Fold each of these.
Amino acid sequence: MMNEAGQKKEIFYPNALPTGVGSMPHHETSQACRFVAGTLSLAPFWPQLPQRSFRENMYVQYSEGFPGFQIDETEGKMWVETSLMMEGLEAFYEKVMSSDLNAFRISLEYAEGLYKMPEILNAVHPEGLQIYKGQVTGPVSMGLTVTDENKRAIIYNEAAEDVVVKMVALKGKWVESYMREAVVAEKYLMFFDEPYMVSFGSAYLNMSREQVIGYLNECFDAVSCMVGVHCCGNTDWSVILDTTVDVVNFDAYEFGVGLTLYSEHLERFLDRGGILAWGIVPTSEAVRHENVTSLVQRLDDLLGRLEAKGFDKKEVLKQSMVTPSCGTGSLTVALAEEIFEKTVDVSKRVQDLYLS
C-alpha cells in the first residue's frame, strides 16, 4: 500500500500487543480515558462512549457534514432526508475538492474521548506511545445502517453511495490528522469498523465483491498511517483480505475457525506484512467463565489449524495483536474493564509462551 507521497507504508510487527475495538460503556469521559491509558499503555485508543450521548453512536458520530442527515436525539433516531441531501450535494463536493480538511472535523460533543484522550496520554506517557489507534465506522456499515426517510439503506441511493464513501474516507483522514497533531507515537493505526460485513453474500447486502473492495480501498487510500478493519462475525474474509488493509480484527472467540479456512488469502496477506488482530476475549458474560489459560488455549487451537496448513505459529504471532472480540459500549463498566484486563493478561501470556 502506498501513502500520499507514493511511498510504501511502514509495516509493524506488534508481537501480540493488546489494544481495543473502540466503544466503551463509561458515562464519564475522563474515567474511560484514564482506564485505557493505564491498561493498554503500549497501544491505547480513544474511546467512543455511546452511553454518554446519542451523538457518540457509531453512525451518528461521523455524520457531521453529511448533506441531509437528520438526528432525533429524544427518540434515538437518525436518517437522511433525500430532498435535503440533493440540495446539499454541490456544497458537499465543493468541500471534498477543497484542501480544507477541517470541513470534515468531528466536534467535541460527538467524540469527547477523541479530545480528552491526548491530555491524559501526554500526562501518563510523556515519552510518547508505540501505537495510537483511532477508528471510524466503515462505508459498508454506515451505508447499510443509515436509511432515508422511507427506511431504505442510503448505500442503495446512487447519489448517496459516493457521499457515504467520501464522508467516511475524509472523516478517517481528519481523525488521523488530529491524532498525529495531539499525541506523539511511533505509529498510528486507523480502523474502519465494519460489523455489517457479516451480511456480505446474503440478500440483505446487495453489493458485489468489487464494490466492497472499492469502497474500502478508497477509504484506506485517504489516510497515510496503517489501516485496519474490524468485523465481529463470520464473513467472506477473502473480500477483506484482498483489499489493501494492513490489520484484520476478527471475533476469534466465536468465529475464529471461519477465518482459518481462507488459507491462500491469509498467506498472501501475511506475506505482504499484514497483521491479524485476534479478538479472543469475549465481550459478553462468557468472559466470566474463562481465564487466561482457557483463552490462550482457545487461541492456540486456532493457531494449530493454521500450522496444519503450513503456517509458522511464531511468525503468525509476531504479526498479531490481541483484542476483545468486539466493542464494549453496551456492557457494564465493570464487565468492560474485566474484559480489557483479561485482554492484557492474555497478551502477556502469549508473549511469554511463544515470543520470549
Amino acid sequence: MATRRLAAHKKGALATGQTLVFVEESGFSQRPTLRRTWALRGQTPTLREHFNWKRLSAAGAIAWRPGQPRTRLFLSLRPGAIDSSAAVDFLGNLRRHLRGPVVVLWDGLPAHRSRLVQAYLRTQAHWLTLERFPAYAPELNPVEGLWADLKSHASANYAADTIDELDQHLKGATRRLRRSDGRGLGYIKHTGLVGEQEYRQLCEDQ
C-alpha cells in the first residue's frame, strides 16, 4: 500500500514536471560511531575522545525529478533540536536551489505538522506541496542511505574535538558524496521507487 502511494507521487511528478524532495532528520554526536577497521592483528586502533555529548541536529534531503538521472543532496546542520522554525527555514532554503513546483515528502514529526509550518505552506502553495510518509516506514525514505554513508563510513571512528570540527567534517563528506555519480539515484533505487531496468537506463544517461 505504502509503495503504491509513493509510486503515485512519482507518476504525478513525472507528468507535471515536479521535483520530489525526500526529507529526514537525524543527529550526530562528538562521540564516534564505532566500526571495525583493517588494522593489523595485535595493533588495535586507539580512539581518543572527550566523552562530550554535544550533538548536531541534521536535516537531509534528496531532490529528484522522476525520469532524470541526476539527483541533488542537501544537508543542514544546527545545534539543538529541529523545531518548527528550523523546518520552515529548511523549506525556504530549498527554494533558493530548486526551480519549478516541488513536492516535499517527510515523516510525521510534530514540527512538520505545526501551525507555523502549515501557515508557511499556505503562503508558498504556488510552488510547494507537503506530503507525509506512511508511519513506521523509514525504508521508503532514500535519505536513510545518506545517513548510512555518513554514519557508517564518512564519520565512523571519527572523534571530533569540537562541534565546529564535526560540522565541517560532515559537510565535507556530503560534498564528496555529491560528486559521486549516481549516489543519490542509488539511494532511491534501494527504496524500490526505481526498478533495475530503469536504474540501468538512467545510469547510462548520466
Amino acid sequence: MGEIVWAAGSVHAPQLLTRPPQEDQAQLQAGIDAMGILGSELDATNPDALILIGIDHVETFFPGSVPAFAIVTGDTATAEFAGHDYEVPIHQGLAVDLLNGLVEEGIDLAYAHEALLGHAFATPLEYIHQGRSIPIIPMFVNVYLPPLPTAQRCIQVGEAIRKVIDQRPEKVAILASGGLSHYPGTWKYFYPEYEFDHWVIQELEEGRPESLLDLTGEQLDEVGNTELLPWLIMFGAIGNKRGELLSYQPTSHHGHGVMRFIPDRGGRGQEPRDIPEYGGFEFKGQGYEFYKYPTPETYPLNKALFALRTNDELVKRFVRDMDGVAAELGVSGEQAEALKTVSTDVLAKAGAHGILAITTTLVIQRAAREAGIEITSVA
C-alpha cells in the first residue's frame, strides 16, 4: 500500500530565479531558505516519486487547448525559465496509473507526453528538488483562463490521487506550487491582499482547509489567490493536516508563502491571531475582474501576444516592423495600436490577458534592447 510521506505548498515567483536588483533580497532569500528546508525533508522522507502540482501561466497549453487538469506522462519533464533549464525523469508507472485512475474516478484529465514547463515548475525544481534522484509527475490545474475548476472539484481530484497512491507500493511526496496574493499584469500589481493571505495561513495552520471550499473562482481572482487551487488538490490527497508556516514574505507585489504539512513537526510559524474571515476582505461579487476568458473579439490580440512571446525570430522582426508583423498576426485597429505601445496597461485595456500582457512586453523590450532599438512603453 502506498503512502504520502511528504506534502508542502510553496511559492514559485519568477523573481526567486531572476533576483532583480529592485527586489528586497532578504525577502527573496527567506523564501529560498524555506524552500531549502523542504528539500532537506525530501532527504529525510526519501520518497519514490514527487507529484508536482503546478499551473500554466498561459504558456504551455494556450492557444491550442485549455484543460482544467492535465498530467505529463512522457519519459522526461522539461522545464525552463530565464536561462534555467531542467530535465527530470517522470515516474512512468505512477503517471500512467494516475491518468487511468483519475479518469475511472470521473475526473476528465487531459495528458501530454511532453510539455514545456514554466517557472511554476522551474522554481521548485531549482530550490526544492535540487536535482535529487526523485522522479516527478508534473500535473497542471488551470488558474488563469476562466472558467476555473471549483474548489470542491480540486478536492475531488486530490481524493482520486490518494486512491491511486493507496493502490501502489511507492512512498509519494506531493508539492503544491502556487503563490498567495498577487496580480501580475494588472493595475493591482502593487496592491496584494496581504490580510487575506494571513487569514488563509491561519486556517491552514489550524487544519481547516475546508474554510476555502466556498470560495468561487471569481472570488479567488478578486483576492489574487487563484493559485490556491493546486493547494486544494494537495489537501484532497492528504486530508485536513495542520500546516507549519516556514516563511511568509509580503513583497511589494506578491505574498510569498511556504508551508509544510507532512511530516508534522509540531511547530507553527506565527503567533495565534484572531483574524476575521477572509482577512476582513469584502467581495464585490462582480465576476472575474483581473484574469478573464479571452472572448472571440479579444482572441486575435491574445494569440498574437502568445506568438510573440514564444517565437524569437518573430519578436525580432516585430521590433523592426511593428505594422507589418501586426498585420501578419491578424491584428488590426485598436488591438494593433495597443500592441505597438508595448504597454501592459494599454494591452490589458484592449482585452489582453494580464499574464500574456506582462510576459510578452518583457520579451519585446528585451528583443529591442538586444537590437539597439529604443522602445518607449506608453503608460
